[in-house]
Amino acid sequence: MNKGLLKSWKTDKGFGFIKSDILEHDTFIHISALKHMSRKPKVGDTIYFDVATQSDGKSKAINCRIEGVAELKLLKAPNQKNNNQPHRIAKSNFASSFLGKVASISIIAVLGFVAVNKYTHYQSNEQFNNHTPVITNADLATFDEQYPKVVIPKNTQNFTCDGRQYCTEMRSREEAVFFINNCPNTKMDGDGDGDPCENDTRF
């Protein structure tokens, strides 16, 4: 490491020359070699530097620093707290991402639950519909054959339910028909075909 004084400096062009007692010639120095210093150089500054040879054979100063002037990287050291900011941002992003995933999973779970309920309800309706008998015209015709209509005589307005239950208590077949169709606990239609007192020879 060499030591010398900044002999000249051209601020507008950003370069100058260093004079050192141990070097034969003044050494060229460019502002880029001092960009890490907290202020720009000025004539009379003590410069510590190394010497490098350029491609054109000329020498220049490198690894330079100004005596008594702080370097920018040292000035940033007390502000290391700022370095934690990205970590806080990262943590915040992580928390946001985690909450977002939880919310997404919750929404998917709710939608799945609703879908399952709807499907179950649909299946129940399908099963109900599949087990519900469909009555066709043929069924109606068969029903009419099995259960013939009972014609109630027009003069039934003269009959009243008075507790009688047996054919022997009836005065006519019409009265018996009225009783089995309108009165409880009758015992006159054993085969349930709607034709009471079939064996009663009185009618």
UniProtKB/TrEMBL annotation:
The record's annotation in CDD domains points to:
CSP_CDS
A Pfam family this chain is assigned to: CSD
CSD domain boundaries:
1-66
Keywords (alphabetical) are: Membrane, Phosphoprotein, Transmembrane, Transmembrane helix
Signal sequence range: none
What PROSITE patterns does the entry give? CSD_2
Name of the protein in its database record: Cold shock domain-containing protein
Native source species: Pseudoalteromonas fuliginea
